[in-house]
Amino acid sequence: MSIYNPQSSTAEQFISHSEIVAILDYAAAHRNDMALIGDILTKAAEGRGLTHREAAVLMECSDSDTTERIFAIARDIKQRIYGNRIVMFAPLYLSNHCINGCTYCPYHATNRTIARRKLSQEQIAAEVIALQDMGHKRLALEAGEHPKLAPIEYILDSIDTIYSIHHRNGAIRRVNVNIAATTVENYRRLRDAGIGTYILFEETYNREVYNRLHPSGPKSDWAYHTEAMDRAMEGGIDDVGIGALFGLADYRYDLIGLLLHAEHLEARFGVGPHTISVPRIRPADDIDLTKFPNAVTDELFRRIVAILRLAVPYTGMIISTRESAECRRQVLEVGVSQISGGSRTSVGGYAEQQQSEGSEQFDISDHRTLDQIVGWLLELGYIPSFCTACYREGRTGDRFMSLAKSGAIGNCCGPNALMTLQEYLCDYASESTLAAAKGVIAAEVAKIPSERARQITVERIERIVKGERDFRF
Ligand code: SF4
What is the Å distance from ligand 1's center to 105 Cα? Predict the structure, then answer.
């Protein structure tokens, strides 16, 4: 049995099974301890975050007043820290060749029915043009693990291609990368290529379940996979994004696992994860959902998101088009700060829809276009943001976190969201989205706290309307 040690570089110690089991027991024993729960909620309401132990207790408590309080505090923290901004992004699938055996993913090596594809640099350029024409500025690059067909050099070339394309007023200004766990040296190369966040999902933190779901391939090495973020940080990547695929194992275990991982990164590197993704398992080619009995209901899912919001207030939270519009609406309220829009999960799905059919990683629930989602967000009172300023201004890692914690980022993020939204409205919006946006920018500019930032924003928005692009604080 390994001893729990958040500062250790050994996965077994920072994601300690015995610690998680002890915490689950503790949470079950204290689920009706209203004095303790009251203290935890008070701490959460102050925006001080929660430990994994405190979060576990809240997850277990079934009292309805407590549940309402959790949601109310989550809404309040979300509003205080993120305002009404929602960051937009799209996934870009490069290749679905994979040597791993993950039983929940249709890209697994033994799937003989899926259409296998790998994009050439010309095809990637076509995808990027299609994404730019939708209005996207931020991508999450996705690829299966295949050292021969999709080696690191292919990924690096693809990043170069993506950044080099400027179609009309379009530009991809931030490429986040979601590829298999790799070496410190390769992470250094990704950093040098100018990536934003390195994203890797743990899938499940439960090692026993993990081993069962990953019967073959390099990803079956749980420790190597779990220590990937440590290597990424050692390679100089400041912003890392963690995630669990809810539905693979017991949700309580994975919620605690995510928080242990976040606490470990904070303890070892002084900065927690930049983002947490909360996908849920979805139907896909060759994937039988009846084999996954741990599916999480919408209500439970909303509670998981809210508790994560309380536990790690300054960590962005991401949700994909796996989820329906209604589910997305609910979790945006209680914690999610970044969503994808107009996504295709097939390889080449933006420019070559027909040829890419049958290569999807998962079925999409939210099929709306990016423009429809932008219009919908505006109608709900949100500000869709295409901002990529922080990492381009060097505000990454602990520099981003300390700014976020001081609240000073409000004078950057708010104006940046408005300026990038104005770009979107000028270049890509439909009539109905323009109608939904009417008056919104002026009303939001008036709320910018610093007079100087307000004045500069007004002036820059006027210049954007006249044709200039890419201002940022
Ligand atoms: S989850 Fe990733 S590693 Fe596993 S089969 Fe799918 S693409 Fe390959």
Answer: 6
